[in-house]
Structure formats: structure tokens, C-alpha cells
User: Fold Carboxylesterase NlhH from Microbacterium azadirachtae.
Amino acid sequence: MSVLPPPLRPTVANQVLARMLLRTAARFMPEESTTSAELIALEPELGAVVTEDVAVPGPRGPIPVRLYRRDDAEPRAGFVWVHGGAWMFGTLDSPEAHAVAMSIAARGIAVASVDYRKARGRTCFPVLSDDVLAAWQWVHAHVDRLGTTQETLHLGGASAGANLATGVVRRLIAAGEQAPATLVAAYPLLHFVLPPLPEDLVAALESTPPPFRFTPRMVSLLNLNWAGVRYHEDPVAFPALGPLDRMPPTFVMDAESDELRASSAAFAVALQAAGVETGYETVPDTFHGYLAQPGTPAAQDGIRRIVHWIDQH
Assistant:
């Protein structure tokens, strides 16, 4: 495995930037959690799912991973899932982790939901990527814990988690290790600077409430906090950069009203141009983060699309 450079020691200016970003982002990315009982009340079928918490060894200490599978049927495939949260928020109990994993597992696909250290204080790139990579490698080596096989193990994530999952795929390929069967990237941010917004996205954003908007300033702050200027061209930190021809089949799923669609749409076009099997879909009438809204039509639609992609492969 190639060794990434150590994370930079944050300067005073970067620490001030991070504190400002935390105050801004926390207004629309609160630390939320959801319980299994709450989810089962919304969707009784989820009652068939059993979970197991595991502390996976990592380069900087244990990494929390939660395994999900039905207790009444063998899984059709396995799926390693990485929640989002601007690289700064989220736990295994966050809706984008727990609700998504439980819903996919209830539909017959075993899930390993991965947590990671957050980009706060002195923690930044590549620490988060190292955590997700170590978690993937552990699940890949212990895939029997999910009741599936390495050949049917997929990898995916949402938002910042999609960035991390995609970066890990690039690391696996560079190291000559087995890549996942497919990659799933839900409303990801994969560029240091957003590409131009598609015309239909400009129109959709006109009616988008401010809490769901990712202004250029916010995108810049997020990316600087995550990786800094030093790594703005690094294809692990920003996986839309560099050659893509060796990527596995990839499903990119967007929100209709989301500035980050400029990044994911450009990524899908680049994948197709590189000859990679690519699925690209936009879930209508959605804002960024809709998978974190369990029980809503948007979240259920997104789950259905992810399961359909995995079943196709």
C-alpha cells in the first residue's frame, strides 16, 4: 500500500478557519441520532435486521464499524457504507449512517457502516481516508462476518462519505489491491473548486432554502478544512482529478437542488469518457442530504435506487 503524506499541523489561521466553519456548518448539519426502534416504527420490515458493533484496528486507533444483516435470510451481497457530514459531523447513530444501513440490510444486502475521525482541530487529510481504508480492508478480510463474499462486496457513501469512499477506491487501485465490485457515490463533493453549474441546476437552486445551499465560500471552507491548499490536486482528497479508466462500475446519485451536483455530474461525465460503466441519476424534488431523512419519499427513493444498482451487479 502506498503511503500518503502525514497530515499538516494546522496553522493558527487554519484553526480560526475551522472554528468559523464549525459554527457555520453546525447551523444546517446538527449532530443527530436515530434509534432502531424509531426506524422500525417507520418501516416495520426493519425489525428483521440484526446489528453488531465492531472496533476495527486502524493506524491511529480503533475505528467504529457496525454490521447489519437480516436474521432470516442469507444476503445477496455486501455493502460498506460511509456516512457524510462535511468531514466534521456524524456517528454510526446518525440517520445517514444508521437509517441507510438498516434500510439496505432489510432489503437483503448486508451492510458494514463505517465511522471515521473528523476533520477538526489537528485532524485533516489523510487521517479520515486512512480510517475508511482500514475499515474497508478489515471488512474485505472478514467478509464472512457479513455472510457474503469478497467478489460481491460493494463500497459507497454520501456527501463527504462519498468523497472518502471514492478516494479509497483510488488508493486500492494504485496499490494493486482488489477494488469493490462497484462504487456508489451519493451527492458527493469530489472537486477542490466546483465546476460550472449546469443550467437546470441554476434554475432549481432559485427556490432552494438557504440552509440547503452550498455557496462557493462554503465549498471553499469545507475543502480547505478537509485537505488544505497543499492537497488541492491530490486525487485521493479530490477523487474527480486524475485518470479514471481503472475505476470499477460507479453509480452517482444526486439531489436535484444541490450545488454539489456540479461536482458529481462532471465526475459522471468524466467516468463515461474514460470508458467506465457509469450510472447517473438525479432524485427529483430533493435537497442535499435527503438520505438522512428516514421515512420520507426522497430517502426511500434513494435507497431503492442504491439497492437496484447493487442487485444489477
Q: What stands out?
A: The two ends are 27 Å apart (CA to CA). The chain has one domain: 12-312. Residues 160-175 form the longest helix (16 residues).
